Amino acid sequence: MAEACLSSSSHILFSNSRSISHLSPFHLHPSNYNKRQSVAGNFAPAIRCEAAASAAAQVEIKKKRRNTFEIENLTTWLLKQEQAGHIDAELTIVISSISLACKQIASLLQRSSIINLTGAHGTVNIQGEDQKKLDVISNEVFCNCLRSSGRTGIIASEEEDVPVAVEETYSGNYVVVFDPIDGSANIDTSLTTGSIFGIYGPDEQCLVDLDDDSTLDQARQKCIVSACQPGRNLLAAGYCLYSSAVVFTLSIGEGLFAFTLDPAYGEFVLTHENIKIPKSGKIYSFNEGNYDLWDDKLKKYLDHLRQPGANGKPYSGRYIGCLVGEIHRMLLYGGVYGNPKNKNSKNGNLRLLYECAPMSYIVEQAGGKATDGHQRILDIKPAQIHQRTPIFIGSPDEIEKLEKYLA
């Protein structure tokens, strides 16, 4: 019987050495067998739980150690999203081609002064704006990468007069809209610039192929209708920031993620996972040089921001002159960015399709808000490719406060 008792309680002896000192003849006497079972039943589970907790802690430590050396690049991340069913293989290829274009543009910007790519190109785009050399070159880089992907059907760019149907496409139906260089006025002074892009599926009105008798005008109309979709139809959107670091920020409708270019590997590496914009912030970004051209309601809002708050400090004014830079800072620190209409620009200065809509999509994925002062940016359907709109975008509490002033 003693052997049986020792066997039945062996898990106690070997699971916790401290229990040996507590054994006595009482535990080994046959008349106390049932009591021994009761005693063992009382403290054995606690010991087992302690051992399980210790094992779990060891596993967690191993995970932390492993994560310290883990690097997840953009390609791996995209493949995981594809495996999870969030995107298909074709969209993976399109996004990869855009990331390649961004790497090329980043390299050109870093060497622009050395290889004489600064200054004006001597041409004017469809909006009547003077084009920089890198505006034209970056547009070509984007277009070439998207064409070579074989998965893009239509391209709409700030630098193109009308959307372009991609002849080289094999099976692509995706519509890609982009601003190849945002903040190009900053190029010559080596300040922050960026690229913005949005990806749509084909418009249902354009799924039927044109007849052989179709004219060029009809083909152009098809491109325009297919590209002019509201931002809520976006399948993915992102931007690439070119500054002290090159940061590729992307959303596929499942949160917002940022990848930083590691020059040692030439790869975008995941550095910001599931970004959430702060609910409020103490930074505002407006071009206050236009203050006297704004309406009185907006002036009162700006006057309010300049007044000391409960902490005795007013909001801080920050203006980079690059939408990508403004939004990137806001996503990390919170605040509000505004590019309102004024007496000289009745519809604002930024383009709805390839600037405001993708950025609004990105900010909303991070928990922020974007409005033109009256309605949600993503609900506006463009009537024209280069249509402009006022925009206020940022932390949800800050946008709600702004809307009260504008109401």
Provide an overview of this structure.
This protein is an alpha+beta fold. It contains 12 helices and 17 strands. Helix 6 (89-110) packs antiparallel against helix 7.
Q: What's the quick description here?
A:
This protein is an alpha+beta fold.
How far apart, in Å, are the first and last alpha carbons? 87 Å
* Mean pLDDT over all positions: 84
C-alpha Rg (nearest Å): 30 Å
Give the CA-based shape. globular
Secondary-structure element series: HHHHHHEEHEEEEHEEEEEHEHEEHEEEH
The CATH topology of the largest domain corresponds to: Fructose-1,6-Bisphosphatase, Chain A, domain 1
Biggest sheet strand line-up = 4-3-5-6-7-8-9-10
Poorly predicted segments: 1-28, 30-41, 205-214
Instruction: State the fourth-level CATH superfamily of the largest domain.
Output: Fructose-1,6-Bisphosphatase, subunit A, domain 1
